[in-house]
Write a structure and sequence with these properties.
By secondary structure, this protein is mainly alpha-helical. About 65% of the residues lie in helices and about 0% in strands. The protein is built from ten helices and no strands. α1 crosses α2, α3 packs across α6 and α7 runs antiparallel to α10. The protein starts with about 35 loop residues before the first helix and ends with a helix.
Length: about 325
Amino acid sequence: MHHNIIISHSPTIYVSPLEEDSTMAPDKERHTPFLTSLIAGGMAGTTVDLALFPIDTLKTRLQSPQGFVAAGGFRGVYRGIMAAAAGSSPGAALFFGTYETMKPVIANLQSTYRGEEASSPALTHMISASIGEAAACLVRVPTEVVKSKMQTNAAGASSLSATFKLVVSEKDGRAFGSQVFGGLYRGYGITLMREVPFAFIQFPLYERLKVEWAKIQGFETSPLQAATCGSFSGGIAAAFTTPLDVVKTRLMLGSDKNGVKYHGANDVIGRILKEEGTPVLLSGIQPRVMWISIGGFVFFGAYESYRSLLMNFPR
């Protein structure tokens, strides 16, 4: 959420301020059943991706080595939406299912090995979010590769099925498991390198903002308030991780505007600095921050709303 993005707590929302303050016992992390977080995350992922897809398309085209106009400009901003829809739901579902499951586990491990006083809620959120991202990227990366090809009007990317076949046929050894999956997992490493720092910034900030807001008002944050926290924390994380996003986009596209293939993240960075200049590493920062800020608002608000409904649904 980016996928950038761009999470949690209680039947209405989050743990109460009495449960989680700066001295809270780490085993008080909110527990969300795996299936509940899986369904709520999937529904939230689909909601935000379908609503904000055009902004993501413009961001991808701004980062394309072909240049914005050659990559399609403002034409066909919904190209690749079917690929996004296919991947957004399971990707978000895997993230939230893993994240919510790992939070109490990590909190209890901290309590056991570090003691309650030394335990850090922020560390719990960082580790849980990182594990969640690694799981989600198993679905998100193939989706991003196919989507990026379609969004930039790459040769042979005339339809979803044609683009999928094209990417699977790219068995050049530059992607994880390329002999089996072709180029579907091209950029998996750099995507994790982008998503993990993003999660390290976003989730502790998001969770802390909700706790502080709950303390101020004396009761748990609502889905709307959680959405605001998600928007702010997502925008901050998006700005700081834009250079990693540019490198990820270039790796997934596979080659530069002259068709010369990229050979890993270091090659991409070196060629950008030598041939295009440092400012290119920040290309697409405005739509990226806008996309993730708005997306974070919709995404976290939707997740907490769906979660609340599911938690209160008669069993």
